[in-house]
């Protein structure tokens, strides 16, 4: 009886959502809107492009602002028109050079000096990237013809990734509504600038902490928060403030620009991330890029099937890095050669001499389709957001070798839930890699926990991509979503924390106490003096 009631109500709910979904799919795509897109290069572009594909399929027309020497953003595409902005320096060399130096320093160990060196390296690289983008902004603002064509194009909104504040500055200038495709902003986690983020249980980007922190860990968290504030105030903010002062009426700064955004499409969800306070204009689209696996190409499929019962290991370290240092690559190749599994390894550097004949090196792999293949047992990855979320979607446990930025923190979220294991770059060698790989392969808990995350992640009323597109079109239909923004962003800090109220109340309280005291003092003294006089 209970069973049928439950299944009836479950059916009711699923009916409701199908109707909702149908209504969504039938909603006219607002007669084809016009969207101006600014995205970062590399992996950020990969997921922005998927969103563009979807918007294009729904009849919207899209213009993409791209650096003329872009690394990944194609100039000619059937999906969009390009607006090319000359760029002073190529990112590819800059980022790869930085990563090589960064990896070298990481391998020196884990002392405070190493940490300091890493921080300095990172800050100088990131500051240079922002300054290149700010030069590009200045070029746009100095080009009256381009500015005119941008304003005459009558875009409905700007869709942008705010890790670089380029898009929000442009949106401010063109007075357009903004939708963010976001995880990180110029400094730190996107939430930190709009939602309450107590440092007591919200680990700061880069801290490598979880939401359960001891007293000393909370001190460390505060230190990393200080670092983020330092980075924003002294290294990154000034580049944009210079642009704002010169070209934007009334000036602007990165925080107010970000806080004015209409909708935050957040590339995260609470299956992956630790629970935290959020805001009405934040929409979680974690895993929006994930799709059911497509069949592999015949030769790859044959290779994967040839693994038999042992299955397949796949490895990639992302779009930014061509290869690890040679000695690590050799160690990894030797471990792979010993395994009974077949291995597919995306690697573009020198071919290791110890490569086994079970290992196939490729310069590109269909990562989603391989992750979705039932033969795939372990994903060896650097922990970029895209890869981690695809692994969750397909339920494949991860052996992580984080390289930089958010990668350690991403992998930590899997490790905390028993769905992955981290080996720090400084610790990668033949033995640690072999041990880690065998542990993730043979301890069933890794795969069970990851499959549980996968089931939780997939249990959503609407697929995250449809959710994202709905909100982009919502902003078009209503010309923004200002009604979802809190008042917080217009307040000075002392009002936000009610310091002014506390000061006023304590002043009033003290005045009242003092006044009462003086009155009593006067009354009782007068009483005493009059008594004294009587005698
Ligand atoms: C938090 O960490 C402490 C110390 O490591 C541990 O004893 C406690 O069980 C943890 N709490 C939760 C909720 O995981
Ligand atoms: C390579 O493959 C062959 C079979 O094709 C096998 O006999 C041989 O042991 C393999 N070599 C190594 C080093 O695994």
From TrEMBL:
The chain crosses the membrane at residues 501-524. It is an enzyme of class 2 (transferase). PROSITE patterns: UDPGT. Keywords: Glycosyltransferase, Membrane, Signal, Transferase, Transmembrane, Transmembrane helix. It is found in: Membrane. InterPro entries: UDP-glycosyltransferase, UDP_glucos_trans, UDP_glycos_trans_CS. This is UDP-glucuronosyltransferase. GO terms for molecular function: UDP-glycosyltransferase activity. Its EC number is 2.4.1.17. The lineage of its organism: Eukaryota, Metazoa, Chordata, Craniata, Vertebrata. It is a single-pass membrane protein. It comes from the Eukaryota. Belongs to the UDP-glycosyltransferase family. Residues 1-32 form the signal peptide. PANTHER family: EG:EG0003.4 PROTEIN-RELATED, UDP GLUCURONOSYLTRANSFERASE 5 FAMILY, POLYPEPTIDE F1-RELATED. It catalyses: glucuronate acceptor + UDP-alpha-D-glucuronate = acceptor beta-D-glucuronoside + UDP + H(+).
